[in-house]
Amino acid sequence: MRLVTADALHEFAASCLRGVGIGAADADVVADVLVHADLRGLDAHGVYRLPAYLKRVVQGMAGGGDAVRVVAGSGAVRRVDGGSALGPIAAVRATDLACDLAREHGIGLVAVGHSTHLGAAGYYALRAAQADLVGIVTSNGPKAVAPIGAAEPFLGTNPLAIGIPLGRHGAFLHDMATGASREQIRRAAAAGEPIEPGIAVDADGNPTIDAAAALMGSVLPAGGAKGSGISLAISLLISMLGGADADADIPLMITDPPQRQNVGHMIVVIDPWRLQDRDTALARVEDVIDRVHALRPAAGVDQVRVPGERAAALARQRAAEGIPVPVKELLRWAESLTALGLAEQAEWARTTAG
């Protein structure tokens, strides 16, 4: 394991993206989203994803933000065509547009189609919350989850993230997937390790802890029928509003031959101060958080926390001490970057691995 500073990891990712033709500003956006995930411990959405992003750009299946544009809407709602941009580029622009609409109208809804993987949905909800607004963010993706009652995958692990400004408590951030991460299962399979029970089934629909068997089958919805319903609702809304493909029709990020994705996102931003006096409302939510913190902890728990606090604490720690990156991961990056002709960046990864 090697500790890499957030700044160094950001510059590495941005340099790789610039190296395959992504403009500097767009490269910084994507790097920021990836490093945000690594800082908060969401490693499967961090720079781990970079080789796949780069490969899709080189294949012509994704790119920068030149083609991102508003194609429909009026008042507080807009539909954005992502132009096959890397998902973070389209999603950041959609989030910022939704924030502008919320400031003008009190609420803004932006639906996105023809995009790609957006990374950690919480990044965008937190972006709104840090702008003193409420953010609600969803996205769909390739099928991985078997709906309740099904023995085969049909839904994505469609995330839902909610960010709320909390005054002296910073921001509330709940960022959840509606199914177990296939990337985590893939990493377990590569390491020859079992997965947690109850998160996946094999190709015959039988429960399994064998990661390789799970990859041939389906992951299960988080929370059973409730998670299954939320995931389907997300898929329906994004297809209806953003014009994205159904989850079952979206190809995986890396396929042979490569295929374009039509992933969708939906960002809703609310200006809460249109409805409540800001100081009064913040005092109310600050009191709620204080009372949650004061609850008697269960056995083995040091303190009751609210969503986002543990990840925020980890982000502060990693910002100070460095982000842990496995040596095997650095060497994988070096191999991928060499194949893409990014010799300087490959050497950085190889040297950092030691």
From TrEMBL:
Pfam families: Ldh_2
Alphabetized UniProt keyword annotations: Oxidoreductase
Protein name, entry field: Malate/lactate/ureidoglycolate dehydrogenase, LDH2 family
Family in the record: Belongs to the LDH2/MDH2 oxidoreductase family.
Gene Ontology MF terms in the entry: oxidoreductase activity
